[in-house]
Amino acid sequence: MYLKLIFMGTPRFAIPVLESIRQDGHEIAAVYSKPDRKVGRGRKLSSPPVKQYAQDHQIPVEQPENFRNNLTVDKLFNYNAEALVVAAYGIFLPKKIINGLNHGCLNIHPSLLPKHRGASPVASSILEGSSKTGVTVMLLDEGMDTGPILCQREIMIEEAETCEDLTQRLFTEGGDLILDAITGLMSGTLKPIPQDDTKATLTTRFTKNDGLINWNSTSIQILRSIRAYYPWPGTFTNYNKTSLKIVSAIPFNKPIALRPGEIKMTDEVLIGTLDGAISVKEIQPNGKNILTAGDFKLGYRSLEGSILGEREFTKET
């Protein structure tokens, strides 16, 4: 048995879900993605990855700004789909759409609901130091990730895994899980289970300022933030009226006497924290390319002994 579906998604993370559904033989009547946006310094118009995938496979694409217009809603229903599958779409769906299809709107959420509802579930799991997370297929309702659960899959978080890597892995798992959910709904063997709101946690949307490193934090807190905020908003520190982006780093487990934010260049690029230091592996000066620690030492040796994180460049005396 196969369904006639509409798929809704925007970033590349959503492509494995769309690919899984397509290869399983379900009819994809249309793909909905966010509108093209101007990006980069040249402000060139760029299409979302999901749109590009759909066009490559001759699937009709729709890109409404929203669904406030009745004509936009009516156009969706004119596809005569039996269900929607939503994966990182990014546009609010009105009640008329949520309740208007035979098999409802199936949403893939990258956490083990009801934990980590909201905008930043993957980064939040890394920031909290969780050892595991997972992916949930749920039916949308009018709340923020509050709909009944169809199925879930738990995965372990790898020690050095970034938000980008973990998100990709979760949506790849979601591509497998969505097939189980569709089959279960069609056969009637899968019954939606209401979420336990007493166990719910809510994540918030990050801003650029969340990436500013506080060197008076512990090494483990800083390392988690570097992983959690990659690639956006990124983790950065101030120096000499500009900024440095810390792209990747690892623990430095030897005793060392460094003040928080103090930079020391030995065989490694070390920066002091509240309880020790971290070893920076990749770093990006403002407006420059990403540098390895070795290349950074060659071009920025003058920073030796400076205190990062202050508004002005300072040197230890």
How many helices? The count is 8
Secondary-structure element sequence? EHEEEHEHEHEEHEEHEHEEEEEEHEE
Strand fraction equals 25-35%
Low-confidence stretches: 311-317
Determine the CATH topology of the largest domain. Answer: Rossmann fold
The portion of residues assigned to helices is 10-25%
Beginning-to-end CA distance, first to last residue: 74 Å
What's the Cα radius of gyration?
A: 23 Å
Q: Average pLDDT value?
A: 94
Largest sheet strand order: 5-2-1-6-7-9-10
The CATH architecture of the largest domain is: 3-Layer(aba) Sandwich
* Secondary-structure content class: alpha/beta
What is the CATH H-level superfamily of the largest domain? Answer: Formyl transferase, N-terminal domain
Number of self-contained structural domains = 2
Largest sheet: 7 strands, mixed
Query: Globular, elongated, flat, extended or rod-shaped: what is the shape?
Result: elongated
Q: Using DSSP, what is the number of strands?
A: 19
What is the CATH class designation of the largest domain?
Answer: Alpha Beta
